[in-house]
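Here is a typical protein record:
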Amino acid sequence: MEVVKSIKESACYIAFNPQKEEAQGFDKTGGGYPYQLPDGVQIQIASERYRAPEILFHPSLIGLEYAGMHELLVTSVSRCDLDLRRTLYSQIVLAGGSTMFHGFGDRLLNEVRKLAPKDIKIRISAPPERKFSTWIGGSILASLATFKKMWVSKQEYEEYGAGILHRKTL
């Protein structure tokens, strides 16, 4: 698993225009990214470099019937109050390890622009610590006294089932 993670982090990227990448084709040129495995064997990583992370935008590539990240973002914003939407579109912050792919922010911006209202200014920030920002945010949230009231113990869950979640959080 560590080898896969290493390949993901060192070789993969988000293609701004996947169709153009396909047309140019790593496989056709014989080129690729040289990667040395722990046993010393060197492999070439070709179109997998951009095809693997493409599932973030098109989960259907691996048979999943989900919307892409860009579609989920636009849908989420569109379900918020009308007066908040402009602010939300102008303050998109990338968080999590998969946003570290080279080209992720540019591609997300391009895809969101296609779906969002044309008169909206879209701004995406990519803080350098975003790989761990979800954990940092979770840590901060878990340390808040008000959040502790929402915790559900195993015993409570076993006694009341999923209904306890609604009771404690609403």
In short: The chain has eleven helices and four strands. Residues 86 and 120 are 6 Å apart (CA to CA).
